[in-house]
Amino acid sequence: MKIRIAGVLLLLTGMTVANAQQPINLIPQPVDVQPQRGTFTLTKTATIGYDQPKAQAAADMMAQKLNAPTGFGLRPKAGTKASIQFDLNETPNPKLGKEGYTLDASSKGVTITANEPAGLFYGMQSLLQLLPKEIESKTPAQSSWTIPAVRITDYPRFGWRGIMLDVSRHFFPKDDVKRYIDELARLKFNTFHWHLTDDQGWRIEIKSLPKLTEVGAWRVQRAGHFGNRLDPKPGEAASYGGFYTQNDIKEIIKYAQDRNVTIVPEIDVPGHSMAALAAYPELSCTKTPVSVDPGTAFSEWYGNGTFKMLVENTLNPSDEKVYEFLDKVFTEVAALFPNQYIHVGGDECYKGYWAQDPGCQALMKQLNIRHVEDLQGYFMNRVEKILKAKGKKLLGWDEILEGGISPEATVMSWRGIKGGIEAAHLGHDVVMTPTTFAYLDYQQGDNDPPIYATLRTKKSYSFEPVPDGVDAKYILGGQANLWTEQIPTLRYAEYMTYPRGWALADVYWSPKETKNWDKFVPRMEAHFDRADIAQVNYSRAVYDAIVRTSMKNGKLTLTLESEVPNLDIYYSIDDTMPDAFSTKYSQPVELPDGPITLRVITYRAGKPIGHLIVLSRDALQKRAGR
Ligand code: ACM
Prior knowledge:
Signal peptide: 1-20
InterPro entries: Beta_hexosaminidase_sua/sub, Fn3_assoc_repeat, GH, Glyco_hydro_20_cat, Hex-like_dom2, HEX_bac_N
Helix content: 25-40%
Bound molecules: acetamide
Shape: globular
CATH architecture of the largest domain: Alpha-Beta Barrel
Family: Belongs to the glycosyl hydrolase 20 family.
Distance between the termini: 64 Å
CATH topology of the largest domain: TIM Barrel
Domain Beta-hexosaminidase bacterial type N-terminal: 24-155
Number of strands: 29
Largest sheet: 8 strands, parallel, barrel
Keywords: Glycosidase, Hydrolase, Signal
């Protein structure tokens, strides 16, 4: 009896140890994960196989990923009995769809099956995440190369899982774009929205309109915060910028296709067009020569969504030359990109110059339009006709709803989710990418350089892309947007993308029912360790205290919280540096009057873990009631 109990205990302890050594920390969280007894260890005698030619690409990529850190020199072979086996289902498994897969790992080996190569690619990504973190190393590393036995069945919740990169506000060279796409593909994102044009640079070669890149891709070199940078000086050389040749673009499209990523190009019109107008000023209403904007204060924002452009950055909707220009642009864009969608922007278009323009006034009369805003509808419908003639579908920011657009147009909801709700009710397909959950340019905590707003990882994680009362069939999926006004390098683009990009990978892939922030945190932390080895940058703002204030009975009241559970929060208001011997936060605190400064720091298990957050009374006062 005793012996049997001891045996059972040993077994249980053994299992706990095995699990404790190697917990399963996948991002995104798969649909179903069934841990099994045992482990599989990859050695140099391992084999990689594929059952048919269409499965070879996944096997080849697997070998490439494994060989760099292990140094094993594995070479895939056609066949069915390898220790890492990639098989395509003869009869499709309807549950898996186009992108799903099963992964079966036992002590004997690993089999990944799918209906399509995309599923094998995703099974491969899950297998890589099951391996120890050293697998992320680009150079030979030491590890056990052991994975826990497990059965996984997995497929995405949404077909559209996107990330947008703005390459206009800062130019990202070809190899940076590839690296960014590779990182996204590993998180099972399948759509790369490429914001190629804006006021600060035109980045795509259009052979029939060479000045777009000769002039429009270059601006004067400037430092300082976007929106406050110094104006170009007369005669100053435009030395900052760059663009992608059509060959570069073909190369990137192929690179993305190999990773199951579709590219959606965006040509942002009729607003956000100053770079195009720097090249062809005759396309504006005033026809005034302009420079590519280096991030000056050319716009005024009034806080309620209204704004004014002090420099004209819109195309003239009443000029036929504009549509001839757009036809040339979209002819070349449509020929380059195989994707059915072309994003035509439509956001933040200032109509003030249209209102003053005799041509626009005459057009309004002719169309029997009373509001200048409705000219945007006319413009977008013309653009949609151009795209249709080239076999493409129009996609635009939610402003395209304002002037009226055909029901076939797809709407990207960015000003919250209300545009998406309205669009879905009108029968449009919708991609959800609201500022409130999905804007990766927003700061992640109080220690980040300030920009428009703050968006914490926990908030991104809490996003539900299908609003109540909306038919889910209209919600194609969701996206995260990385605007780069304040992001000059890929390294910083990574910092802003992760961990929020991991949170949104879960939101767009994983079943709603599996969502649980407390369970996401250890997965996120495991990915911090992996990112360190992969040399991918990320923010640690999740460890910083969340500082809130409110006015209660005329007193400023402080509430502190941690985003990651089980942190200890210490603070001071006496101009001392806080540590684990300072006041420990436990409940809301009434702050004394006077010019105090709050300093807050978080600890975990006796060690400081978050940044020191310093806020003046003014800053605390400002956030009261927010
Ligand atoms: C946008 O953020 N202007 C779409």
